Amino acid sequence: MAATFHSGERIDPSIIEGRAPHIARLLLDRVQATPAAEAFRYRADGDWISLDWQQTADAVERLAAGLIALGVRPGQRVALASGTRIEWILADLAILMAGAATTTVYPTTHAEEMAYILADSGSVVVFAEDHDQLAKLHLHRNSLPAVTTVILLDGTADGDWVIGLDEVRELGAVLLRQRPGAVMERVAGIQAQDLATLIYTSGTTGRPKGVRLRHSALTYEAATVAAVGELSAADLQYLWLPLAHVFGNLLIMLPLQIGFATAVDGSIENIMPNLAVVRPTWMGAVPRIFEKVYAGVTGAIAAEGWAKRQLFGWAVRVGGHVARVRRNGQDVSSVLAGQYAIADRLVLSKVRARFGGRLRFLSSGSAPLDPKIAEWFAAIGIPVLEGYGLTETSAASLCNRLDRYVFGTVGTPFPGTEVRLAEDGEILLRGPGVMEGYHNQPEATAAVLGPDGWLATGDIGEFDEHGYLRITDRKKDLFKTSGGKYVAPAAVESAFRALCPYIGNIAVFGAGRNYATALITLDRDAITRWAAEHELADRSYAELARQPEVRELVQGYLDLLNERLNRWETVKRFVLLDREFTIADGELTPSLKLRRRVVGERHAELIDAMYA
Ligand code: AMP
């Protein structure tokens, strides 16, 4: 059996063993410790408004009481369908304080999938961000008998099924006047083993699975990340990541655990302008954001004159050299230090100033980060610590540390988590952060979670000689875009084959890229018939594949497919191949299943061109 790796850190075990049993306790402990410290900062009418921990807890308690007044009982699920904003955070904590559990839904989730998630989770109340979310709910209201109330964050509520957030607060205030202990009674009943959050994650065949995360798993995650000591109460977090994802969830838990303040704005467009104003010291993000920033800065430099480009290139090389020397624990020579001082003053500090100038480091997770980009950030003086984990492990299980970093790896385990490789290289994880199981899916749970507590991740990896884990491949038929979102290619492909009668096959790609694309082959008989009806009878297969009318035909069906998919799964570009996939070429198995990997390798140039 391969070696099992634990964290190499010496930490005080009581930090993890003595952690808060549940999230309500985590919040109450935080308020007691630092009631007047800034907790959250959010934008309203152009200004940044601050809440301290006491104000946060008061708002949460009122909202929790409102949920109790609406009839939410302990253990029931309440869903949040919204972008990242302060109301999400308050509502999430309120749901937990009321003894209930949160189900999360991305604002970009398709109506049908949203309805599935709400029904599968048995959610009784839904917080809906705006009329767009509400429209999706109305569309499927008939299949949501369990949902008694929708709470609308923005816009006017219509009073029947839907009420406004202010009304819930008012209901809460009334209940607290009558029974001041209403919420605390609920808190007293919460157990560490209780369900805190149901987060839906993609299944390979289409339907998402609800990952059941206990309170104790989420408080472990917060405690172990805190224990490695990279973050402190003096930090200021900038939070934009989707809170429907487990990474976002961790970014709410950490401030409760550690006590730092968080500025919240879910808009991706606002990230760069806000960073300059908020001047945070830390931010979590997905690779896509690092790619964008890198492309933005290097693109702007490329448009400059020769001298500026040379200076920039030199400064980044010097910065990279210094970062490397420091990472290796060596001393920076006086010559190099001198060069660095100039490079930093003329170039690097100015790049950092675009991010507010105070960032100590950034964290990346959810999908692989290109080591080139990680090195570039290190060179300009903002290390990006890459981590790895799954929804099923309550977010990160391993991470690089500021003083222990290897580019292209996901670092070493967090204290309390064990990592081992199965014989075929599959990464297995065990620890207090591992899920209870998939909601209502014992078979799917048994397929990945053994009785001994080891979770099979579906990712393939290897350890380097110092125990840093490198993700090398994947076993599961799912890939991630650089935005960190799962795409189930087989599900998208079969949906398209069912929809479009003119195609022979489709292979979907996009791992590590910022959107999905496809290689499509035509069905010879069907397209020949269609051609005969459209005055193209004499064309060969290859000629038809190049014919604009045929492309338009396929595009029409692709548009229909895309309408049904979640936004992040949509196929943005495609190539019509001039020949069909065959068994002889190894592109199909003898049972006619698509060998996506072979197809991808054979047509790598065509695929690359769709991202040019
Ligand atoms: P999720 O449940 O959405 O967090 O997705 C978990 C999956 O994301 C893992 O099983 C990996 O396939 C992938 N993943 C997360 N972090 C990384 C990383 N740093 N490098 C490569 N893949 C990653």
Notes on the protein architecture:
With 612 residues, the chain is an alpha/beta fold. The protein is built from 22 helices and 26 strands. The strands form five sheets. Strands 2-1-11-10-12-13-14-15-16 form a nine-stranded mixed sheet. Strands 7-6-5-3-4-8-9-19 form an eight-stranded mixed sheet, with helices on both faces. The model has no long low-confidence stretch (mean pLDDT 95). Adenosine monophosphate is lined by residues 201, 246, 365-368, 386, 388, 390-391, 410, 457-459, 471, 474, 480, 486.
Topology:
Elements: H1 14-17, H2 23-33, E1 38-44, E2 47-52, H3 53-69, E3 77-81, H4 86-97, E4 101-105, H5 111-121, E5 123-128, H6 131-139, E6 149-152, E7 162-164, H7 165-178, H8 182-188, E8 195-201, E9 209-214, H9 215-227, E10 236-239, H10 246-258, E11 261-264, H11 271-278, E12 282-285, H12 287-302, H13 306-327, H14 334-353, E13 361-364, H15 371-380, E14 384-390, E15 395-399, E16 412-413, E17 418-421, E18 426-430, E19 437-438, H16 442-448, E20 455-463, E21 469-474, E22 479-480, E23 486-487, H17 489-499, E24 503-509, E25 516-522, H18 524-533, H19 541-546, H20 548-564, E26 571-576, H21 596-602, H22 604-609
Parallel strand pairs: 1-11, 3-4, 3-5, 4-8, 5-6, 6-7, 10-11, 10-12, 12-13, 13-14, 25-26
Antiparallel strand pairs: 1-2, 8-9, 9-19, 14-15, 15-16, 17-18, 18-20, 20-21, 22-23, 24-25
Helix pairs in contact: 2-10, 3-4, 3-7, 5-6, 9-10, 13-14, 13-15, 17-20
The chain binds adenosine monophosphate.
Residues 201, 246, 365-368, 386, 388, 390-391, 410, 457-459, 471, 474, 480, 486 line the site of adenosine monophosphate.
